[in-house]
Structures are given as C-alpha cells and as structure tokens.
UniProtKB/TrEMBL annotation:
Keywords: Antibiotic resistance, ATP-binding, Cell inner membrane, Cell membrane, Hydrolase, Membrane, Nucleotide-binding, Translocase, Transmembrane, Transmembrane helix, Transport. It is found in: Cell inner membrane. Residues 225-247 are annotated as: Disordered. The lineage of its organism: Bacteria, Pseudomonadati, Pseudomonadota, Alphaproteobacteria, Hyphomicrobiales. This is Pyoverdine export ATP-binding/permease protein PvdT.
C-alpha cells in the first residue's frame, strides 16, 4: 500500500481572539492516501476552511501533529512549507484570487516563476493547461474580462501549473452559477481520474456526493468519515486525456537563470504596481527628487563659490608672503611703525628660498594729463614687483633696477588709469608725460586689466620706483610692506618661518606680521568646505524626510496588497521573493526620483550659470554619484521594513484579508 499522503493526529486549532479562545478544530485525526477524492462538509463555521488551510500548509495547527509525505510540518521552516506548497499542492479558492493586473496566462505562469521554470517552458505549459481547460482563446484576457466560471478555470490551471499532486479546493463552486459549477466539478473529476488527490471543502451535499469519501465536521470535530458510492454524473463522458501529476514534464531552469527570472518577475510586479498607483508614486518620488536636487545643487554652489574665491586669491600671487609692520591686521599703530626698511628687503633677497622680493610703499596722489585729473593710488615698488605678483604688461616695459637706483620718474599705469586719462583711444600712452602730484613722470608701461581679483577695483593705480615715492612724496625710508615670492621648490610655510626668524634677528623684536597666501587659501578652502558640508547636511535632512515618505507609501502598498501576497505565498513564493518584490518597488521609486533630482539639479545649474556671472554652480561627479547611491540606499533602508513585514505575513492571514 502506498504511504499515506497526509496524516493528522489529534490536530487542534484555536484562535486566541478576545478573552476566550475560539476552538476551530478539536482533536482531528485522519489519514488521506494519495489519489483519493475527499469532500469535507459541514455547516458554515464548522471549521472546514481551517482544516483545509492546515492540510495545505497555509496554516499551522496549535496542537497535535500533522505529517505530509512522512514529514512533520511543525518542524518545517516557512520556506520549507512554501516549497511543499510550490511542488506538491495546488489551491483553488472560492473567489479565485487571481491577480487583476496579470493576464490569464500570466496568472497561470506565476507559480512556475517561483519553481524556477524557464520562460519558454512556462509559457508553453500555461498555454497547454489553458487549452486543456477550454480557455485557449482567453489566454491574454485579464480576470476582469472573464466570467466567474472562466476565472475559476484559470485558477485551476494555476493550481496545476507546477504539477501538483494534491488539489485543495475551498468552495470552488460557491461563487459560480450551476452550469459553471458543474463544469468545474467535471474538471476536478477528470483530475482525480488522472490520479491526482483532490480535497474539496463544500457545504453543498450535491457537490460532496461527487467524492469517494465524505468527512463531516461539526463545531470543529469530525462527526463522520465515510466512503461514498459515487453518483456518476450524466454529463461525465469518458474522461478525455487525464491531467494527472506530470512533474516529470517540468524542467527547471539553471539556478542563476531561475534567480534572474524571480528578479524579473519581481521587477515587473513592482512596475505594474507603481503604474497602478501613478499619483501616489509620483508624489513619493517628489520627496526624493527635491532632496537629491537640493543636495547636488548645494554642493555644486559650494564648490562653485569656493573656486571663485580661490581664483581671487590666486590673483594675489602664488606662493607669496607679505610682510607688514605692526602686530596684526587692524593694528592702529602699524602706520607709525617705521622699522620695516629697504635693508630688510635686501637681506631677504639674498635668501635661498626666495625667488623675488619687492619693497612697497604707497600713497594717494592726483594724476594730471592736460586738463584731466584723477585721483590714484601710487604704489612705490621694486623692479621685481611684477615678478612677485605675476602681473603682466599690455604695453611698454617695467622700470628696472637702474630706474630704482636713479630715483627715476618713470611710471607704469594700470588699465583703469589709462582709461581715465586717455579714454578708449587706441594710441599708446607709452612715452607721454603725466603729473603725479606735482612730479612729472614718463609713462613706460601699461598693465593688463586684472580679472576679478581682490585687488581689482575700478580705482586707478600707478607704479613708480619705491625710491621715487619715498624721496618725492613720503620723505621717509620706512616701507608699507615687503612682498616675497617664495621659490617654487620651497615650502611657503617653511619660508614664512625663515623670514620671521630673519626679521626678528634684524629687528630684535617681533614688530611685523606676515600674510601667507597659501594660508589664506587653505583657510578659505576649509571654511567653504565646512559651510558646504553644513548646508548639504541640512539638504540631506530633506532626503531623509523623502525616505520616510517612501516607508509610508510602501506600508500602504503592502497593506493594500495583502491578499496578493497571500496568493503568492499559497503558490509557493519564498519569503525572499516577497521581500525582493517590495524592495525593488521601493528602490525603483527612489532611483527614478534620484535620477530625476540629478537631472533637475543639472537643469537648474545650466539656467543659473546662464543667468548669473557672479557665481557659477560647479557640479562634481562625486556629489552626483553620492546622491545617486544615497537615493538607492534610502530605497533599501526605508523600503526594507515594509518589505520585510510583507514577507513575514502568515499566508492564511494574508489570504483571509480582501
Ligand atoms: P467554515 O469554513 O467551515 O465556514 P472556518 O474554518 O472558516 O469555518 O471557521 C471555523 C471557526 O473558526 C469559526 O467559528 C470562525 O469564526 C473561527 N475562525 C476562523 N478564522 C478565524 C480567525 N482568523 N480568527 C478568529 N476566529 C476564526
Ligand atoms: Mg470556509
């Protein structure tokens, strides 16, 4: 004798609702052999569905022992029970439980996705099953376009898809008209004739009499279990090709192909569900779009302004040290400190780490050319000044060391001065004489206009040998500052220390201070970086808020689709399959939102850069990649909890909800 298919031993099922537990099944002991056709009958509420769910491993007993194919189900993990359902069981529900967004063929194929069948095998088998059930012409219809009887036939095809040995049918005719009901029963008869085990739950004795064995329940207790002499239905002509267990015909795909298939199915379901709730999906995405766009823009703005400021600093000259008299910036006495002298500059010029040195003095004088007068800054500088500052000449030449020694009345004017004195004329002013204060000076050169540096004001300024300025205008030999250009091979910081040591030795006191452009550059870089980080952190908060939105929407999505999850579990989806499906949905929402956000940020940047010249947005690839990754991560992190909740659902609890 074949081993019994299922063995129940004193199975109990209580529902702990309210103060008193509801006993749905009490001490049910029975055995069903392979190939039997069993009807479970009883009044409504007698525990029929509860018994069927336990038999089908959708539910677990609260007491007693239940063995399937010799295995104790209490010892099986959720995924092992799923495997049992997937490989050995097929379910037919009273309300069909088809997925509305899939076609008939799609519904029938679904269990095979989880069983790992190849796409071609799956489609061929689904088509064959539908054809056998007289549904060949309806394969591409959606459940909404089918009658109840047709939907039930689709659900029978789904139950047979994985070659189930046992068909569980809970009131399969309950929602059908009598003709469709008879048709469904005829199909079940056929399946039984082909060797399949069929277990039907019904409250209708007319249906039950088609079975070979009738188990009657009353208040959760088996009150009778008797063989039934079957009435052969009049219309049951010689059974056509029986649809017996044919697991041999099922060729699974290779594991990685199967995994890819699971993923594709999950992906397709996620897209279908997003499409079904477009407005909700778009609103959720909006949170992510705004978050990502603001992070990317803020970082770009930070980088852009930092570049701008650094460009300004670079105009101060590279690797330069400025030595000023006094204690620090804002030292009110610094103008009176007269200890910084030309000899200091000469001493510095002899140092190995120094590329060029220029002493500077300055004053303000009126320039005159003919009848035109203009007030200008008069800089007294050494011949190395332009080498130190990196300034370039547009015309003429700079005065040389000889000019400095001779106290020459040679002047180099800047572009502003040229414009103020000579207008936009093309003729070169080089060689002309102007009055600086009361001193006639010959123009020897014109500098190029400076591009937006700190020193680039519209104020005219001119350059004379410092000796000339000291002798003719200031009458003193002290300096306003000494500019030192550090050799490219030397460290600016070490040079600063050496300059400090040298001057302290010469002055016997620290009566000067040094501005280090490298230092300023570093300070500004770190300041703007800190600011960018701060603002980006604030923008990131909006990303988190967007993520919370995703969680919320996913929770709604899960609770809306609990029945769907139940069906998927009934046909054998693993927990990981369900988890994957919902996680993909969350990640897709975030990913699409993230990409849109990046696009928006780039578009905004293009607009901004076109509209404004003062600042520019500078996009870094890193910030874009980080934004992209973080939006994906948000999808995973914030989608995980709802997805996990979905995968942890109890199949029977999920199925019960509609
Ligand atoms: P039938 O299918 O025979 O109509 P059920 O198996 O659905 O009966 O229910 C048997 C008993 O268990 C009923 O009294 C019902 O109220 C109770 N029951 C079923 N499901 C639940 C549940 N999820 N929670 C609490 N009680 C339940
Ligand atoms: Mg029921």
């Amino acid at each position: 004798m074949a081993p019994p298919l299922v063995v129940l031993d004193n199975v109990c099922r209580d529902y702990a609702t309210g103060a008193e537990p509801v006993v749905a099944l009490r001490d049910v002991t029975l055995t069903i052999a392979a190939g039997e056709m069993v009807a479970i009958v009883g009044a409504s509420g007698s525990g029929k569905s509860t018994l069927l769910n336990i038999l089908g491993c959708l539910d677990r007993p609260t007491g007693g022992s239940y063995r399937v194919l010799g295995r104790e189900t209490a010892a099986l993990e959720a995924d092992e029970l799923a495997a049992l359902r997937r490989e050995h069981f097929g379910f037919i529900f009273q309300r069909y439980h088809l997925m509305a967004e899939l076609t008939a063929a799609g519904n029938v194929e679904m269990p095979a996705v989880y069983a790992g069948l190849t796409l071609q095998a799956r489609q061929a088998r689904a088509a064959a099953l539908l054809a056998r059930l007289g549904m060949a012409g309806r394969a591409s219809h959606r459940p909404g376009q089918l009658s109840g009887g047709q939907q039930q036939r689709v659900s029978i095809a789904r139950a047979l898809m994985n070659g189930a040995e046992v068909i569980f049918a809970d009131e399969p005719t309950g929602a059908l008209d009598s003709a469709s009901g008879r048709e469904v029963l005829r199909i079940l008869d056929e399946l039984h004739a082909g060797g399949q085990t069929v277990i039907i739950v019904t409250h209708d004795m007319a249906v039950a009499r088609r079975a070979e064995r009738i188990i009657e329940l009353r208040d959760g207790v088996v009150v009778s279990d008797r063989p039934n002499r079957r009435e052969t239905p009049a219309e049951a002509a010689p059974a056509p090709a029986p649809a017996g267990p044919d697991r041999a015909a099922i060729v699974p795909a290779t594991p990685w192909r199967a995994r890819l298939d699971h993923f594709r199915e999950a992906f397709r379901m996620a897209l279908l569900s997003m499409n079904a709730h477009r407005l909700r999906t778009v609103l959720t995405m909006l949170g992510i779009v705004i978050g990502v766009a603001s992070v990317v823009c803020v970082v770009a703005l930070g980088a852009g302004s930092q570049q701008k400021v650094l460009a300004n600093i670079n105009n101060l000259g590279t690797n330069t040290l400025e030595v000023f008299p006094g204690k620090d910036f804002g030292d009110v006495r610094s103008g009176k400190v007269t200890t910084l002298v030309v000899a200091d500059a000469q001493a510095l010029a002899g140092q190995p780490y120094v590329a060029a040195v220029t002493p500077t003095v300055s004053t303000s004088k009126t320039l005159r050319s003919g009848s035109i007068e203009v007030t200008a800054q008069v800089n007294g500088v050494g011949e190395a000044y332009f080498a130190v500052k990196g300034t370039e000449l547009a015309e003429g030449a700079f005065f040389d060391a000889d000019g400095v020694r001779r106290i020459a009345q040679d002047v180099v004017i800047d572009a502003n001065t040229r414009k103020a004195l000579f207008g936009e004329t093309a003729t070169s002013p080089v060689g002309r004489i102007i009055l600086v204060g009361a001193v006639p000076c010959r123009i020897v050169g014109v500098t190029r206009p400076q591009q937006g540096g700190f020193g680039s004001s519209a104020n005219p300024s001119v350059y004379l040998p410092y000796t000339t300025v000291q002798a003719r205008f200031l009458g003193s030999t002290s300096l306003r500052s000494i500019s030192v250009r550090v050799d490219d091979d030397a460290s600016t910081d070490l040079a600063e220390q050496a300059v400090t040591a040298l001057l302290v030795r010469r002055h016997k006191a620290r009566d000067f201070f040094i501005l280090n452009t490298d230092d300023i550059r570093r300070t500004i870089t770190s300041t703007t970086q800190a600011l960018t980080l701060l603002v980006a952190a604030i923008a990131a908060i909006s990303l988190v808020v967007g993520g919370v939105g995703v969680t919320n929407i996913m929770l709604v999505s899960v609770s809306e689709r609990i029945a769907e999850i139940g069906v998927r579990m009934a046909v054998g989806a693993r927990r990981s399959d369900i988890l994957q499906q919902f996680l993909i949905e969350a990640v897709l929402v975030c990913l699409i939102g993230g990409l849109t956000g990046i696009g928006l940020a780039l578009g905004f940047g293009a607009l901004f850069n076109a509209a404004s010249t003062a600042f520019s947005l500078h996009y870094s690839l890193t910030s874009i990649i980080v934004a992209f990754l973080s939006s994906t991560l948000i999808g995973v992190v914030f989608g995980y909890m709802p997805a996990r909740n979905a995968s942890r659902l109890d199949p029977v609890a999920a199925l019960a909800r509609e």
